[in-house]
């Protein structure tokens, strides 16, 4: 029987990584009466502004990871690129880590991740792994083709689309996978919560729209403008993917909708995800509060979408770096239904994620019109211009 009485703080949570995801997770935890310690190499990182304490240290440092575990009742993380071997030792010693280090080890390696999904019959693009991709491998696989670094890629880094022989100079060095290039209608995503007892809660299917040049998500539309049958198909595929991992936590599942109506899983993130930021304003329970509920053994919150919404990532403007300067904030906040989030990063540079906005409206077309207005006035520049 679950306890009905809780001490204060409710629980001591350790977050590995103190970026914007850690910040928004800490904000949800503090709202609910938890004690939060973050581990991050940057003093006064974004999450440290809201957490109770910060341990300054590297995410691959066994000493600092152990120190965080010793002051926390449960550990989670806002980034995949951390020392999974130390986490496995901590888990074996009795420390609670969600999602598990074993799951994280699979996710960290894009080849293992794709193998896991294919093993359980989850539809994925065709793929093959290579220690070093050569022109001969590309000739065998055929153009166009997507190359992804097996380890360490994020926000468009570690991914290239090789269209023909002229792109050979763009081949990424080191272990990677080649993946079938999929002509897609839309890129979809869903946030799924799963508890230790196997309960799940699914958020709406959303559409992600990308900057084709930088391969960074620009906007998220919820609900995705797709028919109900496609949405249900995507939800079922994503649920099967998370069940195959036996994951406990919050997961972002990215998917392709092909021109023939097929759903293919692209990648899974074992943490809160950019495609779920809209849930703060637009859902009964945000993805961040849901994570705190899951890792604390509390009941899942409702995932109901309150109103249609668009989310837009505020990236550092090209041509600027240094201390961030927000242009057009007052004009943007005058747009009905707009909420502004800034990530408290001390410096900006081109394409760096500096914040986001959400715009709620009863009509998605109206929300998109308001987004176009906001994009014209709201920008993150820097105190210094690039030479």
Automatic annotation (TrEMBL):
Annotated binding of ATP, by residue: 110, 148, 179-182, 187, 266-267
GO-annotated biological processes: 'de novo' IMP biosynthetic process
Catalyzed reactions: 5-amino-1-(5-phospho-beta-D-ribosyl)imidazole + hydrogencarbonate + ATP = 5-carboxyamino-1-(5-phospho-D-ribosyl)imidazole + ADP + phosphate + 2 H(+)
Gene3D superfamilies per record: 3.40.50.20, ATP-grasp fold, A domain (3.30.1490.20), ATP-grasp fold, B domain (3.30.470.20)
Cellular component aspect of the GO annotation: cytosol
EC number: 6.3.4.18
Molecular-function GO term, any one: metal ion binding
UniProt function note: Catalyzes the ATP-dependent conversion of 5-aminoimidazole ribonucleotide (AIR) and HCO(3)- to N5-carboxyaminoimidazole ribonucleotide (N5-CAIR).
Protein name: N5-carboxyaminoimidazole ribonucleotide synthase
Organism from which the protein derives: Thioploca ingrica
Encoding gene per record: purK
């Amino acid at each position: 029987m679950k306890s009905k009485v809780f001490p204060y703080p409710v629980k001591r949570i350790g977050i590995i990584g103190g970026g914007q995801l850690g910040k928004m997770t800490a904000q949800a935890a503090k709202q609910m009466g938890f004690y939060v310690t973050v581990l991050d190499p940057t003093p006064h990182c974004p999450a440290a502004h809201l957490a109770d304490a910060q341990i300054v240290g590297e995410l691959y440092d066994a000493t600092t990871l152990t120190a965080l575990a010793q002051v926390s009742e449960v550990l989670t993380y806002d980034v995949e690129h951390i020392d999974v071997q130390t986490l496995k030792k901590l888990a074996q010693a009795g420390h609670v880590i969600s999602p598990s280090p074993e799951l994280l080890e699979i996710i960290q390696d894009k080849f293992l991740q794709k193998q896991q999904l294919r093993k359980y019959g989850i539809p994925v693009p065709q793929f093959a792994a290579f220690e070093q991709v050569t022109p001969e491998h590309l000739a065998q696989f055929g153009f166009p083709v997507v190359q992804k670094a097996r380890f360490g890629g994020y926000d468009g880094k570690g991914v290239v689309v090789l269209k023909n022989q002229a792109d050979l100079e763009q081949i990424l060095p080191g272990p990677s996978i080649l993946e079938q290039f999929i002509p897609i209608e839309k890129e979809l995503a869903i946030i799924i919560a799963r508890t230790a007892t196997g309960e799940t809660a699914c958020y709406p299917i959303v559409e992600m729209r990308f900057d084709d040049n930088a391969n960074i998500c620009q906007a998220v539309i919820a609900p995705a403008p797709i028919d109900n049958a496609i949405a249900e198909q995507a939800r079922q595929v994503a649920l099967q993917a998370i069940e195959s991992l036996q994951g406990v936590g919050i997961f972002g599942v990215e998917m392709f909708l092909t021109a023939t109506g097929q759903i293919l899983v692209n990648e899974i993130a074992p943490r809160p995800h950019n495609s779920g930021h809209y849930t703060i304003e637009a859902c009964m329970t945000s993805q961040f509060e849901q994570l705190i509920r899951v890792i604390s053994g509390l009941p899942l919150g409702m995932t109901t979408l309150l109103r249609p919404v668009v989310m837009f990532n505020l990236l550092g403007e090209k041509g600027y770096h240094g201390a961030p300067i927000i242009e057009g904030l007052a004009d943007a906040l005058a747009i009905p239904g707009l909420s502004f989030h800034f990530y408290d990063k001390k410096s900006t540079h081109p394409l760096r994620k500096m914040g986001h906005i959400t715009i709620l409206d009863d009509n998605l077309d109206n929300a998109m019109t308001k987004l176009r207005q906001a994009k014209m006035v709201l920008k993150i520049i820097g105190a210094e211009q690039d030479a």
